[in-house]
Design brief:
Number of helices: 16
Number of strands: 29
CATH topology of the largest domain: UDP-N-acetylmuramoyl-L-alanine:D-glutamate ligase
Shape: elongated
Largest sheet: 9 strands, mixed
Strand content: 25-35%
Strand order of the largest sheet: 4-3-2-5-1-6-9-10-11
Helix content: 25-40%
Number of domains: 3
Structural class: alpha/beta
CATH superfamily of the largest domain: Mur-like, catalytic domain
Length: 596
């Protein structure tokens, strides 16, 4: 609170001089350690952390000792510490001290994520950068740049401007003793990005680029580059990414086009430092991803679960498209999402946009709390909800402010073949709330805990799919399910049991499409339609392939067998006393009454 008050009353120029002076004093105190290191700066809106971790992995695979600061961790050689600062590029004396410790431990390759906010506060100053990497540029933190993309880009360009310093000789330990290593100034740029040429205009001894689009090669900035990496015959699937570079076949277990671009950035950088492509290829195949970046959580469930850091409109589109086009491709699985938005006055414009994007890809949405800081969580949620409500595509959604309860509810909707994703926090270990407090929180941990609860309950009731209760003039079918979808699957099995088919003959399939007023009516109307098809086709149906299901509609194909006769004559499926509800342990239960 005091910090915010001081920022309001102290002139901006004085604050800027203060930041500059602190950085200078830190560099002097630690004797400018970067002059004896090979420092790599990575900037851009998305992908910085993934590129940093990939490049670290490639360099280590080639026997180099590395140090690294990114949004996930601080690492010097094999020592690593979680970054719980909610700050990608720490200020004060932190970075210079980190560089000094890296030098002391002979970790000559240092990888730093460089943010526009960090640059605004001069945290990049007095660091002698040897390589600058640009991933991409999308609207984010624009309130810190007067709402201007031009100023946002200009801030990031300052990393590349920092390359315009004399190259250096670094005495590096070798088997034969210390040898002088002449370090060139290099850059790596995403040629596909609309802002790429603004970065390519800066000086570097060697300029590398990567691209997926053919028209990127027509750009003025594409001329006179040292090398451009463009993958041949790349393919994206649920198993990973396949592509070819320099006649070498690469496979990565990472998923999505956004990860392919991050791979190309890191490959370009490693190649520039002399790592052979054959070494890089082997390292690519062994890199399974980083915590909280499209991280799959598997506790043995029959549906997919992902945790991702996506917190901008473009990154949200990227992860949703990857799921729809690769994970759920050619299936009837639903995409269920939990999302929110960051508080603290950050990027308010994107909140309704995030909600609107979710409606374009998801079958069910739960809006929840994320990192409210000093803002009212309800107001942030309302802004996201506005985007959902105003979208042309209407999707089932609900608001659950408690993030754990939102996760629990979302998992209760997941059935076989579905996919659940929670975005916004990734592997972050804290949630930022009012008065500067940070409470322990890890989406991955909470998802695992809630999944285990769901699996335990399912396991205990695994064999009980339905119960047939004979009555005076009717038969009552009590149905149990692990999900809403599962109720319909088990209801079909229960009804087939009641019909007591005699002598099954040939297979039979029928398409089914029903709309109703609510979920109970939908179940009754569904079974009534199945009963009608059973009588017309003289068949019993035991399986359903659900193409789409909501509380008000179901579409799919039922499968069964033609039969010789029925052992029980069902006259009708009635609404009397019937219900369909979710139980306290987040399982589902239904009661259906058949007139006989």
């Amino acid at each position: 609170m005091i910090k915010k008050f001081l920022k309001k009353i102290i002139p901006k120029e004085i604050i800027n001089w203060y930041h500059y002076l602190v950085v200078f004093l830190a560099a002097v105190y630690y004797r400018f350690p970067s002059k004896k290191l090979i420092v790599i700066g990575i900037t851009g809106t998305k992908g910085k952390t993934t590129v940093a971790e990939l490049l670290n992995h490639f360099l280590e695979s080639y026997g180099k000792k590395t140090a690294m600061i990114n949004s996930i961790r601080f690492k010097i050689d094999q020592e690593t510490k979680a970054n719980n600062l909610k700050m990608t590029m720490p200020g004060r004396f932190f970075i210079q001290k980190f560089l000094a410790e890296s030098k002391k431990k002979k970790c000559y390759y240092v990888i730093l994520e460089v943010t526009s906010e960090g640059i605004k506060q001069y945290r990049h100053k007095f660091i002698d950068f040897d390589m600058a990497i640009f991933t991409n540029l999308q609207p984010e933190h624009l309130e810190a740049h007067d709402g201007s993309m031009d100023k946002y880009c200009a801030a990031k360009e300052k990393l590349f401007a920092a390359l315009n310093h004399p190259s250096k000789n670094i005495p590096i330990e070798n088997k034969i003793g210390k040898i002088d290593c002449y370090v060139k100034k290099r850059m790596v740029v995403n040629l596909d990005d609309d802002y790429s040429e603004r970065f390519l205009k800066y000086f570097a001894d060697e300029k590398y680029a990567f691209a997926l689009k053919e028209n990127s090669f027509q750009k003025e900035g594409a001329k006179n580059l040292t090398k451009i990496f463009k993958p041949e015959n790349y393919s994206l699937s649920a198993n990973g990414i396949n592509f070819k570079l320099e006649n070498l076949d690469f496979f990565s277990p990472l998923k999505g086009e956004f990860n392919l671009k991050d791979l190309l950035a890191a490959i370009s950088a490693a190649y520039a430092f002399g790592v052979p492509l054959s070494i890089i290829r082997d390292a690519v195949a062994k890199f399974n991803g980083i915590p909280g970046r499209f991280e799959e959580i598997n506790e043995g469930q029959n549906f997919k679960v992902f945790v991702d850091f996506a917190h901008t409109p473009d990154s949200l589109v990227a992860v949703y498209e990857t799921i729809k086009n690769q994970i759920l491709a050619n299936t009837n699985g639903q995409l269920i999402c939990v999302l929110g938005a960051t508080g603290g006055g950050r990027d308010k414009w994107k909140r309704p946009k995030m909600g609107e994007i979710a409606t374009q890809y998801c079958d069910r949405i739960i809006i929840t709390n994320e990192d409210p800081y000093d803002e009212d969580p309800k107001k942030i949620i309302l802004a996201v909800e506005e985007g959902v409500k105003n979208s042309k595509k209407k999707v089932l959604y609900e608001v659950i402010e408690d993030r754990r309860k939102a996760i629990e509810k979302a998992l209760s909707y997941c059935g076989k073949g579905d996919c659940f994703i929670i975005t916004g926090k990734g592997s972050e270990q804290v949630m930022a709330v009012k008065n500067g407090k940070k409470i322990p929180w890890d989406d991955r941990k909470v998802v695992r805990e809630e999944l285990k609860k769901k699996m335990k309950v399912q396991e205990s009731s695994h064999n009980l799919k339905f119960k047939i209760i004979p009555h005076t003039a009717d038969i009552r079918l009590l149905i149990f399910g692990s999900s809403f979808k599962n109720i319909f699957e088990n209801a079909l099995l229960g009804m087939a049991e009641i019909l007591k088919p005699k002598k099954t003959l040939n297979k039979d399939k029928q398409k089914i499409k029903i709309k109703s007023l609510d979920n109970t009516a939908l179940l009754i109307d569904f079974l009534s339609e199945v009963l009608y098809l059973s009588n017309v086709n003289k068949a019993v149906y035991t399986k359903i392939k659900i193409k789409k299901i909501t509380p008000f509609s179901i579409e799919g194909e039922i499968e069964g067998y033609k039969i010789e006769s029925f052992g029980e004559d069902i006259k009708a499926v009635t609404y009397h006393e019937s219900y369909l509800k979710q139980t306290a342990n987040n399982l589902w239960e239904a009661l259906v009454i058949f007139d006989i």
